[in-house]
Amino acid sequence: MSGGERAGGAEAVLAGLDEQQRAAAAAVRGPVCILAGAGTGKTRTITHRIAYGVHAGVYVPEQVLAVTFTARAAGELRGRLSALGVGGVQARTFHAAAMRQLRYFAPRVLGGPMPELVENKLRVVAGAATRHRLTTDRTSLRDLAGEIEWAKTTLATPEEYPARARAAGREAPFEPAAVAAVYESYEQAKQREGALDFEDLLLVTAFALEQHRDVAQEVRGQYRHFVVDEYQDVNPLQQRLLDAWLGGRAELCVVGDPHQTIYSFTGADPDYLLGFADRYPDAEVVKLERDYRSTPEVVGLANRLIGMAPRRTGLPGLRLMGQRAAGPEPRFVEHPDEPAEAAAVAGACRALVDSGVPAAEIAVLFRINAQSQVYEAALADVGVPYVLKGGERFFERPEVREAVLLLRGAAAGRDDGGALVPAVRDVLASVGWVEHRPPPGGAARDRWQSLSALVDLAVDLVAEQPSLTLAGFVAHLAERANAQHAPTVQGVTLASMHAAKGLEWDAVFVVGLVEGMVPIAQSLARPDAVEEERRLLYVAVTRAREQLTLSWSLTRQPGGARPRTRSRFLDGLAPDTAAQRARARRAPARRPVEALEGAAGELFDRLRTWRAEAASAASVPAYVVFNDATLQAIAETRPASLTELSALPGIGARKLEMYGADVLAAVDGHTSPTASR
Description:
Layout (H helix, E strand, L loop, with lengths): L2 H12 L4 H8 L5 E5 L5 H14 L8 E5 L2 H13 L6 E4 H16 L6 E2 L3 H11 L6 H16 L7 H8 L7 H18 L1 E2 L1 H14 L1 H10 L2 E4 L7 H11 L5 E5 L14 H4 L1 H4 L4 E5 L1 E2 L4 H12 L13 E2 L8 E7 H17 L7 E5 L5 H10 L4 E3 L9 H15 L7 H10 L12 H23 L5 H14 L8 E5 L8 E6 L16 H15 L2 E12 L22 H9 L11 H21 L3 H4 L2 H10 L4 H5 L6 H15 L5 H4 L1
Parallel strand pairs: 1-7, 1-8, 2-3, 2-6, 4-5, 6-7, 9-10, 11-16, 12-14, 12-15, 13-14, 15-16
């Protein structure tokens, strides 16, 4: 290809991009920071930037490594690059890239083949906890595993964990010293088994590059240009690996949105994005602010919501500009209780489906997964199918694995083109699929929806490729499974706000917007944690394309005697109801723990007295019972049941069993059993 042809191809890649996207795509020399707001065409911009660099002769495709956070995102990047005439670019997750490199270099670095991976971390954690005589249930084991993962992603050793955890305000299931002991035993168990966990993949790969010059030269010679998506979610361990890959070079493009920083609890550090221009003073910073996803009404609400957050130092802020036609105003709805809220949302979903909106284009978003139950029941009552997001991966479901195996066998036994859709239906009918509405609730409904998704996918593919065979369909399923690209399951999506990130729907209901839930009670003691809760609500709001409803309920159950307060994040956004104004007049001002007043201050003092006596009786330091942040959350939210108490910071199953009754007695104003002894 001549230079002129190459230049013409490069310019063609930029055609169709808006002014901001074009500026980002044309910035092919690093360091580059692309600040991409929600719905602004981030993936389109990334892929066109890489394609432009290749067609302009700046990049050799095989020397580009694009790092994503999900296998599906990596697969989408590869697919779009292929459509732009670019093949050979490596688009992988951090873990997949590290796995590929470490498997190749293991004999040189580790003196043998690639070690086995710990597939079930809970098994090893359980053994470590038992060795330290800790009584655990599945919940506390998951919490322990989460603490170990947090420690490893933040590069904290077992010895460093207690101090680092206290400084970060971690709410561990056991005292920090006990968690550190389990962490150390966990590491020793892995060493005895000769195994690595997923965090080790990154750590050992980074170590190999840092300590083995020949390995570093080979990897850095292979990869000369780097792109990192969702850079606001990078943790210290991932940044260490990225630095090792770069080796002091600056051919780096990072893409992120500081308004969507919602994973600090897992170790993600937004300072890498916010401080990028400080680290690279000559960096080119490009903003993408034209929102093509949502109506101007949704965009306006999102801007007002995030505009109330304190200004963070670092990169310039983003303000979305809606590009779609006008739509309905977002709705704010107050309900008397949670069942009434769920019934109203389910009724609205029913009306949308009846009006022609596909159920898969509707979502109900909540703060924690435990809130889904009442919405599952309400949707079932009105006959609307639903899908729980965040469960088992689609291609790992038993019914899907069985179906794919049968489809593969059927494809191997066919020697004709055959009609694809009837063939798929016949195979799936042999495992119980029938062409009607799903069975009511439970595992049968989930199984039917999974199989129906495969049928629907076959129908969609045949519409695009009429000659597609069963063997071709099976190959397509294999590609999707490798990329974790699940087909659409027809049903209203029920998802936590965290699980909704990266997704979008025509109509979104954001529910349960009350104090203690949004922001979650665990965040109340730390202003930075409260602001992350605001960003989480921002993420939920920006999932909506056209219709957005935000709702809350005054009590948990009908006739409840403890009125709840609407989320503080709706102040100045939602019109105040008479009930809201009355509660606001009665509610004490939110104050730091040392300045709690009124009933909250009295309860906090009562709880501290009880804690001192409980700690003395158990011969442990007071913080081992509960720390001040937990007592403050109790004093501010005044839980009325063990269920409500269990949602507060620092109260796992073990502490709930030991102290739950005493705490509820203190909340009710009675002398606790511990204090009376």
